[in-house]
Amino acid sequence: MKGPIAINMSEIGMDAIHELFSKDPTIKLGGHWKPSDCIPRWKVAILIPFRNRHEHLPVLLRHLIPMLQRQRLQFAFYVVEQVGTQPFNRAMLFNVGFQEAMKDLDWDCLIFHDVDHIPESNRNYYGCGQMPRHFATKLDKYMYLLPYTEFFGGVSGLTVEQFRKINGFPNAFWGWGGEDDDLWNRVQNAGYSVSRPEGDTGKYKSIPHHHRGEVQFLGRYALLRKSKERQGLDGLNNLNYFANITYDALYKNITVNLTPELAQVTEY
Questions:
Q1: Per-position b or e across 226-252, b if 16+ CB within 10 A of its CB
Q2: What domains lie within the chain, and their CATH numbers?
């Protein structure tokens, strides 16, 4: 399997993506695919948090579907879309996506994937391991350098067992920033370390964008100081939501209107 992926960042519509992959009858409704010539090492649910990024999703699918097929993984895509007026809650969307994905299949590997991150190497294997995995270690907008040692953003992967053990993502991060640092803390608190790809395997290109209409979460530092105390109270175990489910040919769309009342945290 050749390493570099031919990156094409030009905009493309979903109609064109549908036409491109409609020629592959092995891709089932919701973007579910598995190899016919081998038993896949991992059954992988790709969870994508989403709001108003309609031009980014087809670019991501154009790259990820062929890469995952070359890696001979069984996979499906779950686009978890937040509607309503509340600030974007990326972490809570991942928790919702996990709960909904596990209703479909006994997945054993979860990939938490930002919609604007495009992998540059086929060798960046989207399977899980004995430790949680950070895939996006070298992003072009950071000059292909890891911003800081505890950086866990962009694209990460955990087994179902690992994700349940850490109680998922926190639900309390409204607005952008901080939830990945909290995930790092949760992983460490549970006795795990984080593995990363070697060399340039973890290189990604980012689709340029601004946090359009999204606010920065100013309370993140206060929550991060209490990560350990909050971990058992805020996550999968206090999650409530009401989802509207629709199916695209290439992904399952999970639409939710999130509010803080859906994931209340008792005092700690």
A1: ebeebbebbbbebbebeeeeeebebbb
A2: 28-259 (3.90.550.10)
